[in-house]
Each structure stands twice: as C-alpha cells, then as structure tokens.
Amino acid sequence: MKRSITLLDVLLVLVSFVTWVAGDVSYCQQKTPLEVRPHSVTITEFGAVGDGKTLNTKAFHNAIFYLQSFADKGGAQLFVPAGRWLTGGFVLISHLTLLLDKEAIILGSTDSDDWPIVDALPSYGRGRELPGGRHRSLIYGENLVDVIITGDNGTVDGQGSVWWNRFRNGTLNYTRPHLVELMNSSEVVISNLTFKNSPFWTIHPVYCSQVLVQNVTILAPLDSPNTDGIDPDSSNNVCIEDCYISTGDDLISIKSGWDEYGISYASPSSNITIRRLTGETGLGAGIAIGSEMSGGISNVHADSLRFFNSDHGIRIKTAPGRGGYIRKVYISDLTLTNVRIAIRFSGQFGEHPDEFYDLKALPRIEKISIKDVRGENISTAGLLEGLKDDNFINICLSNITLSVTKQPAWNCSYVQGYSNLVSPRTCDLLGGKIYPDHLSDCYRLSNHLRSMVGRKKEGSILPC
Ligand SMILES: *[C@@H]1O[C@H](CO)[C@@H](O)[C@H](O)[C@H]1NC(C)=O
Ligand SMILES: *[C@@H]1O[C@H](CO)[C@@H](O)[C@H](O)[C@H]1NC(C)=O
Ligand SMILES: *[C@@H]1O[C@H](CO)[C@@H](O)[C@H](O)[C@H]1NC(C)=O
Ligand SMILES: *[C@@H]1O[C@H](CO)[C@@H](O)[C@H](O)[C@H]1NC(C)=O
Ligand SMILES: *[C@@H]1O[C@H](CO)[C@@H](O)[C@H](O)[C@H]1NC(C)=O
Ligand SMILES: *[C@@H]1O[C@H](CO)[C@@H](O)[C@H](O)[C@H]1NC(C)=O
Ligand SMILES: *[C@@H]1O[C@H](CO)[C@@H](O)[C@H](O)[C@H]1NC(C)=O
Ligand SMILES: *[C@@H]1O[C@H](CO)[C@@H](O)[C@H](O)[C@H]1NC(C)=O
Ligand SMILES: *[C@@H]1O[C@H](CO)[C@@H](O)[C@H](O)[C@H]1NC(C)=O
Ligand SMILES: *[C@@H]1O[C@H](CO)[C@@H](O)[C@H](O)[C@H]1NC(C)=O
Fold it and tell me: Which domain of life is it from (predicted)?
C-alpha cells in the first residue's frame, strides 16, 4: 500500500530533525583532546615510598606545590609509578595531570586524622550525614581549571570499610569523605582508572562545568553504605561515558543542593549526558535524580544503559521542602535484568538538613521521557508516587517491555502523562496515547512518535 506524504508527516520530520540536532549537542560531543604536559615529575622524587605502609601525604603535597610554578608554562604531570602509595588527603592545582601507572595503587589512610575537616557546602548548609563540617575527600580540588586524573587502569582505593563501620556503629563525628571531589572547577577529566571502596560517594563534582568522566571502573561492596558512583552536583556540561560501576548505592546520582540551603544557593545541574553505563547496585538505582535537587536539574540525557541485580533501575527522589525542579529528562535504550523496581518516583523521600525547611516549597517535576526499555525478572515495573497538590506532569513512557513477577505491575499516584507500547499495560494515569499535540509535552519523543504515526495508519496503535 502506497503512503501519501501529508503535511503532518513533513512537520513531524522537521520537528524530529530539529530536536535531534538540539538533543545531540552534549558535552560528550564538545570535549577536546587531552592536554599534553611539557613537564613531568615522579612522586618518588619527593620521597614517596610505595610499600603500602609509609604515609606519603607530604610527598604528594610537596610534589604538587613544586608543580605550581609550571601552571603558566603549559601545566605539569605528576606520575605515580607501580606500587602501593598510602596517603592522607591531598589537593590538586590547575593545569595538572595526575597520571597513575598500570600497577599503581593510591591507598587512602585508615586514620581519620589524615582526612581534614572542611566547611559544609553552602548548598547543603551542613554535612550530608551530620551537622557541621565534613571530612575532605582523598583527592580534592577547588577553583581549578584544566585538571586531569587518569592512568592505565591504575587504582585509587579509599579503604572505606573503616568508615562504613564507623557509620554503622555510630562513631562518626563528621560526614564521611568522598574519594574524589572537585569544587567550582572546569575542564575536568577523570578517565582510564579504577576507583574502589570509597568511604562515601565516590566521585563528586560540585559547582563544576565541563566535566568528562570516561572509561572508569568504580567498585564497592553491594552492602557498603552510601557508596554512590558518580554524583554530578550543581554542575553543568557533564559527560559520563563507557563506565562500569558496582556499588552499594546509586551508580549515578544527579543533585543540586538540599532544601532551603539549595534553594537560596540556586545552582542548578544541567546538560548532563550519560551513555554506555553498565553496572549493579545493592540498595540504589542505576540512575537516580535527587533527592537533593533544590537548585534545579534539567536537560539530562542518558542512553545505552545496562543494569542488573539491582534494587532500582531509574529513580527520581524528592520531597516537599526541596523546592527546585527536575525537567527535561530523556532516558532511552535501557536493559534491566533481575531488578526489583524498574522505574520509581518518590515524592515523599524525606531527609531534611534541619527543621527550618519550608513545607510549601514544592518541587516541580515535569517532562520526563523514558523509552526503549527491556527488562527480565523485574518485580515491579513502576512505583510512581507524585505529590497530592503537586503532580508530576508530562511523564511519557514509550516502548517498554518488562517481564514482571508481582502484581500490580504499575502503581501510580499523583502523576500525569502519556504512553505508547508499554507492556504490561501501564496505570490509567499514564494510559493516554501520545498524539502529535503532545509533542511539546513529551520531551524529545518526537522521533519515536513519527514511527507511531506510521503504525497508526496500519491500525496497530489506535487508541482504545
Ligand atoms: C571559582 O573559581 C574561579 C576560578 O576558576 C574563581 O575565579 C572564583 O572566584 C571561584 N568562585 C568561588 C565562589 O570561589
Ligand atoms: C579504557 O582504559 C583502559 C585502561 O584502563 C585502556 O586500555 C582502554 O584503551 C581504554 N578504552 C578507551 C575507549 O579509552
Ligand atoms: C581495570 O581494573 C578493574 C579492577 O581490577 C577491572 O575490573 C577492569 O576490567 C579493568 N579495566 C580495563 C579496561 O582493563
Ligand atoms: C566502630 O568502628 C570502628 C571502625 O571499624 C572501630 O575502630 C571502633 O572501635 C568501633 N567502635 C565501636 C564502639 O564499636
Ligand atoms: C571522634 O571524636 C572522638 C573524641 O574526640 C575521637 O576519640 C574519635 O577518634 C573521633 N572519631 C573519628 C572517626 O574521628
Ligand atoms: C584512555 O586510554 C586510551 C588508551 O591508552 C587512550 O587512547 C585514551 O586517550 C585515554 N582517554 C582518556 C580520556 O584519558
Ligand atoms: C547546555 O547545552 C546547550 C547546547 O550545547 C547550550 O546552548 C547551553 O548553554 C548549555 N547550558 C549550560 C547551562 O551550560
Ligand atoms: C530474579 O531477581 C531476583 C533479584 O531481584 C533474584 O534474587 C532472583 O534470583 C532472580 N531470578 C532468576 C530466575 O534469575
Ligand atoms: C523498542 O525498544 C527496543 C529496545 O528495547 C528496540 O530494539 C526497538 O527498536 C524499539 N521499537 C521501536 C518501535 O522503537
Ligand atoms: C501502591 O503503592 C502504595 C505506596 O507505596 C502502597 O501503599 C499501596 O499499597 C500500593 N497499592 C497496591 C495496589 O499495591
């Protein structure tokens, strides 16, 4: 049967072309070749001993202090050769490459005194776990430009179990440290390395822009507490690609500050691209957004995702008091195996910094599109809980096929949106088909819609 080209077809082609072009401009496309440093030193030149016992904090400090004089001469490289280099926290500088050899292992000290206390983040108002300051990360940098942490699959091992035990037995005095934190920095590259056993979240870019995390492996036991993989926080133009992450909590969690502190700091996360991510998580999600999202989160694009043996696939977490927004999220090509809840929205996640949050500060959640999802051995397809006077709107689901072991497969409250080709059949709140006039509501689904309209002529997806 010959199909005539209608004006609608032409319009749809144009719309999908425009959104394809706009959607494809992400930091993953814009990144530039790595800087080559004209100067290089080796950590042993500063007295470091790679026996796994000698504390090398001073050697790292002195080497980086020495390299400062090369910052305006093309930058410099600090080479860490094969060995086990025990250290407390150290601080990076601009125009620096930290290069680990294949068999190099940087080991975090197990003495908490080697992890100095620093101020709470202004967008959190206090440490995430405890009031007051927090332990500084093992590898730290602030106000930097052009910093590269890389290596031939060398390892940074936080030896976090001592911190997990202090968390479990209630003997922490301050919030646990991250393994790597970059604050207010741009042109950051973290690549070709393995990060293990972080005390807390593993890689934390906060108030950063132009961040590339590529080809890293992040490992921590599935029962280790809060060992998130990568947490872009109040950061924009971030590309995370070709990573394998297996940890106790969210593999990736996009954040932007906490309740009244995040609202007044008002530093959003935007233009976050995640692609070719594989992994498993004990208690977390493959990709989480929130729960700290008070500065707003928008333009999140994730595709080619493979999550297995995990609690959740995709999860949005928020609560009254957070304020802020999560909008324009597009997730596609997701494969889930042995996952308890494939998609979860938690509007009442709770957890507040103090009692001064404003219960009337409601988060705005809208334009969330999830398409091309397959799942085997899923308990629940979707547990989608919005908020009573603050529904999550323009939620669009398309081409989702899950083999589900529990009933009901979908359980929705206070959400609104549309769906096409979802099996098992989604909840009534999202049951309306996606039509051309929903193009502006269903973020970036126009490509898909075009193929749906094609099918409609053959009668296969006529509305019920
Ligand atoms: C952020 O870093 C830049 C340098 O990259 C600096 O000029 C600026 O003052 C820093 N902002 C804050 C709040 O420290
Ligand atoms: C990933 O890193 C490993 C070493 O860790 C390297 O051999 C491999 O070439 C890298 N792959 C890409 C695509 O960069
Ligand atoms: C890097 O090392 C980790 C941990 O030893 C390993 O699981 C991973 O496969 C290695 N990656 C590459 C690209 O060789
Ligand atoms: C708590 O755990 C830490 C780290 O393992 C240990 O040093 C400390 O003795 C423990 N304290 C108590 C009260 O169990
Ligand atoms: C917490 O403070 C107590 C008392 O000052 C100290 O003995 C303990 O070592 C501290 N714990 C940590 C994890 O730093
Ligand atoms: C990772 O390692 C590969 C192989 O050595 C190299 O080609 C690539 O440029 C590295 N990528 C980054 C971002 O460091
Ligand atoms: C996000 O990316 C788009 C397209 O590259 C760009 O126009 C916009 O300025 C970026 N937003 C931020 C906050 O950097
Ligand atoms: C299904 O997934 C659960 C975890 O959600 C796992 O315990 C169980 O073994 C899986 N069943 C099969 C047949 O793989
Ligand atoms: C539906 O998603 C699967 C991947 O899960 C993909 O292979 C297939 O092409 C998609 N179908 C349509 C109509 O887009
Ligand atoms: C749907 O989810 C809510 C909230 O978790 C729960 O209380 C309710 O029992 C669930 N409904 C069904 C039919 O399972």
Answer: Eukaryota
Q: Is the pTM of this model over 0.85?
A: yes
Q: How far is the CA of 113 from the centre of ligand 10 (A)?
A: 46
Cα–Cα distance for residue pair 439/244, rounded to 1 Å: 34
Given phi > 0 = left and psi -120 to 50 = alpha, else beta, which region is 459?
left
Task: Kindly list the structural domains of the chain, giving each domain's residue range(s) and its CATH number in brackets, ordered by start.
Answer: 41-453 (2.160.20.10)
Residue with tokens 């961040």: 211
Q: Ligand 10 center to residue 403 CA distance, Å?
A: 20
The per-residue pLDDT for range 207-241, each reduced to its tens digit, is 999 999 999 999 999 999 999 999 999 999 999 99
Q: Output the average pLDDT for the chain.
A: 92
Asked whether the predicted pLDDT for residue 75 surpasses 60, the reply is yes
Determine whether the shortest distance from the Cβ of 94 to ligand 1 is under 6 A.
no
178-197 as b/e, with b when 16 or more CB fall inside 10 Å? bbbbbbbbbbbbbbbbbbbb
* pLDDT tens sequence across 274-292: 999 999 999 999 999 999 9
